[in-house]
Amino acid sequence: MKINSPPKILFLSTFPPTQCGIATYTQDTISAITDVFGENLACEICDISDNTDVNHNVHFTINPTLKSDYTKIGREINGDNTIKLVHIQHEFGLFGGTYGNYLLGFLDVLKKPVTFTFHSVIPTPDKKLMAFVKLLISYSNSVIVMTKKSKKILVDDYDINENSIACIPHGTHNVNYENTQNAKRKFNLENRTVLSTFGLLSSGKSIETALKALPEIINHTPNVLYLILGKTHPNTLVNNKDDYRDSLELLVKELKLKNHVSFINRYLEIDELLDYLKATDIYLFTSKDANQAVSGTFAYAMSCACPIVATAIPHTNEVLSINEGILVPIEDSEQMAKETIKILHNNTLRESMALSAFEKTRASSWNNVAIKQIDIYKKSIDESLKTTFNYPPIKLNHLKNMTTALGIIQFSKISEPDINSGYTLDDNARALITMCMHYNVFKKSSNLLFIDTYLSFIERCQTEYGTFINYVDEHNQTHIKNDYVNLEDSNARAIWALGTVVSLKEHLPKTFVTRAKLSLLRSIPWMSNILSPRAIGFVIKGLYLYNSADKDNNAISIIKKLSKNLISNYDVNAIRSWNWFENYLTYANSVLPEAILYSYLVTGKDSYKRVAIESFDFLLSKMFINGHFKVISNQGWYKKDSIPSKFGEQPIDVSYTIQTLSLFYKTFEDPMYKTMMQTAFDWFLGKNHLNQIMYNPITGGCYDGLEKTNVNLNQGAESTICYLMGRIIMEQQKTVSSIKLFQQKKATMKASFRLSNK
């Protein structure tokens, strides 16, 4: 049987092992697209290189100095029907001929849609340059630039239609936020104040600007060490002589800076580079190119939470605000020294700049750039380019990092646990459920320690009356908040968690199951009296799971009583246009129809089935609009007969919706529910109004909220746990689908075998 190849995007660019900014940019772009969409979209390379050695990472090669290569390779690309679009990384120096006009031979024969990324946009062009750029763009379906300034130049100076230009920022790597002092330990630099600059060295970098500023900086901060990271740009070397680096080393000697400057003279792999940047107190950006449209080095430094002192070029002018750093005139060493000292003198300012730089660049992570570029491709390709998100690996790193011997900490500052926020029953109950789910799927014995920790926390919170406290401070003391906050929902979540443990009695150690059952049974006296609809929902979930493993008439009796209360709420509030249990939609809404469906599964009452479907259909109609998933805003609950608030979306409601959709799909096998599960989970992966991923690919942590213009980058326990719940459900769904597909194929083969024997 012939297997259809996935559609491909071909990148025309330099590529590693070529060591230049565009090659690295292209490699990072391809890696990101592969990470996000690689299961159904492939990337290929047409390398711009005169290197005759075979590069096994590329499929086509054009020698930039051979004019005939351009037409030859263009025709070869036309012959590959799987290539749907050619994305050209454009820099004038990459291609042969005047202004690189050999490229026109390639474009003349190419019969594929074309997208350009312009890495340089030269302002105030002469007539020849202007005509050439307009001719280039006439071959394309779209043009990508990396700054608003570049877009403005194309519109104003080149008369390019602005609707054909997309502004997508230079990508940055996902970086786990790390305290600078901790990062310095990797390099034994704890006792140094670290300044740094990185990139392929050339005279345009103007490193001497920083070196001349150093003596004054050292007078203020004697322990300064300036790291010059990176090898010399190959185009700068003449007859293997490195005149520029030699001049810098001579300047270091003249200024007596030997103990304060370190040259790391090699090409750094990305992980090592990012570690150096995370260990940097201030990044010095010294370019003297007044027309430099974009700098990857500058973007990477910001993404690693570096406060920055930068010379004013178009990219830094546009991106760097006073919140992240300070701009200085080009080649002005005196001003660079003054502003660096200003930041070093004020720890509070330096820390706030670092955090602001880190937050600003999250939107430009390579994953987010990949999502934006795919949207551009879809507009350029005639046929529909169907792409689905890859499901990222399930990582428990952040969940475990948030967990101490007592339990899981409530909040984090970015990705660093905030022990001062203490612990809650809510989070530890959800963590227990999540770790049980993970253990049930993957059977990793290392999970058992965490299951024990979270179960112990629930036991610690249970009172002599069978109820639970919710808040415990960092010293394991009962918090005063327990005395004046309604704890019904928290208590009910504990029942859900305990029921989950009991339901897995065939898989978990017997001691865990026994402890959970005893704790749940101590809670029986108060369960029937709860009033909060969501608390009722959580208790019904917990008792259903408990009863699925240990048949208990008392549990069934409580489920029936609580279900009647929910049904009464529904009867009072539901009207034709508002099939709901209350006059508003708030948080964890889906747990209500889910609880009624569990009640139907226990009692078999058709009226419960009807209400479960009616109410859930109503809720879904408010969350799935024109095929897009939208969480009920927490900035003003959705009240009957009112216009819903926008924005303020939290992971917890996405997770609860996925859980309920999963139960409805298992119960009724309606494929609509399965499709909606995938759409809802895609919210985490970037299918949201900001087109930004909502999880940290490095640690598996999840961001706390999606706001109007930004993502809340704190990765607290609740959001991380809820993301993992949803991810594990999708993993289970993928496994079930694979099993069903195998069974269908097996049945088909058996049927064919029977027919062949007749």
From TrEMBL:
One of its GO terms (biological process) is carbohydrate metabolic process. SUPFAM superfamilies: Six-hairpin glycosidases, UDP-Glycosyltransferase/glycogen phosphorylase. Signal peptide: none annotated. Keywords: Transferase. Residues 183-354 form the Glycosyl transferase family domain. GO terms for molecular function: glycosyltransferase activity. PANTHER family: BLL5144 PROTEIN, GLYCOSYLTRANSFERASE. This is Glycosyltransferase involved in cell wall biosynthesis. The lineage of its organism: Bacteria, Pseudomonadati, Bacteroidota, Flavobacteriia, Flavobacteriales.
